[in-house]
Amino acid sequence: MVSIIIPCRNEQPYIAKALDSVLNQDYVGDLEIIVADGMSDDGTRVILDEYAAKYPQIHWVDNPEGVVPYALNRCIAKSKGDIIIRLDAHSIYPQDYISELTKYLSSLNADNVGGVWITKPANNSAEAIAIALATSHPLGVGNSEFRLENDTIKEVDTVPYGCYKREVFDKIGLFDTDLVRNQDDELNARLKKHGGKIFMIPSVKISYFARPNFKKMRKMFYHYGLYKPLVNVKIGAPTTIRQFIPPAFTLAQLLWLILALLGNFVWATVAFVLIWAPYLGIISLVSAKISGKEKTPGLFMKLVQTFPQIHLSYGWGYLLGFFKVLAFLTGRKMKPVEISR
Fold first, then answer.
1. Are 84 and 164 in contact (CB under 8 A)?
2. What structural domains does the chain harbor?
């Protein structure tokens, strides 16, 4: 049996599409689908009731904490499968998703396998298209392999929506409930430390819908940054080098701000130009190249706005998370924050 586990909260526009894509799988074995809902108030729970009534393999439970790791752990506790696949309500999965991942889990003797993201815009606006393009470009997300174009099966540090042997959770434990974000990164790092093998299967492509507007995108990257230092503490090492670039860039803003506050406006201006001139030049060139391939009016300017918001949101979150981790190390937990789409 394969157990599909899905955390969700306020996913009314997407949850039915996600469930339909799971129900339409070509997998021939036993399948159960367990959803943990974070007390949605947008109609998601009505949809879950309808699907559970219609399809006996679908079950759903409450997740009163409203955050992902609690949801995943509740689903795992309720599940019965020999294989557990962690999915997301914000995505659509190809028909052979489960059959391909379970095949490679066995043939590669892996502990976790996953596919790659094909990032789709949430709607047809220039803003949504810019967000989808920027969050699947190296300038936006660095060398995050599952977000970029790949064509080779390879062993990696993490994958989205992993397909795990159930014994993994018996061996290394469940998802860390201190981590509102990045809980997959921490779990996979823990798995690697225990000698586990994780493979990315690029032929398995997931249609992932990016955030629809800048406000929600900023919130997402801020929380990615906020919880990354805690992940580093949990596993005892940085998960990637690229994570330090946005906070370093954000920290550099303090240089010209401090000079300006001290009344040294000439040197503040010099510092500002030295920081922003090359940066704006790079993102303008990249935005021009990307928008030149598209036919969306206004896309260039939206892209120029998107990249700095990704970097500064993540960077500010990371810097704040660093100081929160200092408090964590003295025995105080980081307060889980409610995250909605």
1. yes
2. 2-213 (3.90.550.10)
With b for 16 or more beta-carbon neighbours within 10 A and e for fewer, the 159-180 pattern comes to bbbbbbbbebbeebebbbbbbb
Tokens (6 digits) for 165: 């042997």
Instruction: Specify whether the CB–CB gap between 47 and 16 falls below 8 A.
Output: yes
pLDDT tens string 26-47: 999 999 999 999 999 999 999 9
Q: What is the predicted pLDDT for the residue at 234? A: 80
CA dihedral 317, 220, 35, 68 (to 10 degrees): 0
Q: Could you tell me if 243 and 226 are in contact, meaning their C-beta atoms sit under 8 angstroms apart?
A: no
- Which value, to the nearest 10 degrees, does the dihedral of the CA atoms of residues 221, 223, 226, 229 take? -80
Report CA torsion sign: 107, 112, 118, 120.
Answer: positive
pLDDT tens track for 62-83: 999 988 999 999 999 999 999 9
DSSP state of 177: T
Q: Is 173 left (phi over 0), alpha (psi -120 to 50) or beta?
A: left
Backbone angles phi, psi at 309, to 5 degrees: -70, -35
What 3-state DSSP class applies to 34?
A: strand
Model pTM score: 0.79
Cα distances (Å, whole numbers) of residue 323 to 233, 244, 267, 326, 328: 12, 15, 29, 5, 9
Contact 48, 73 (CB under 8 A): no
* CB atoms closer than 10 angstroms to residue 52: 16
Q: What is the DSSP letter of 64?
A: T
Query: Integer distance in angstroms from the first to the last C-alpha of the chain?
Result: 31
Is 127 strand, coil or helix?
A: helix
Strand ranges (E), 189-307 = 198-209
Q: How far apart are CA 40 and CA 48, in angstroms?
A: 11
Alpha-carbon span 219 to 216, nearest angstrom: 5
Residue 40's SS3 state is: coil
Tell whether the torsion through CA atoms of 292, 295, 297 and 299 is positive or negative. negative
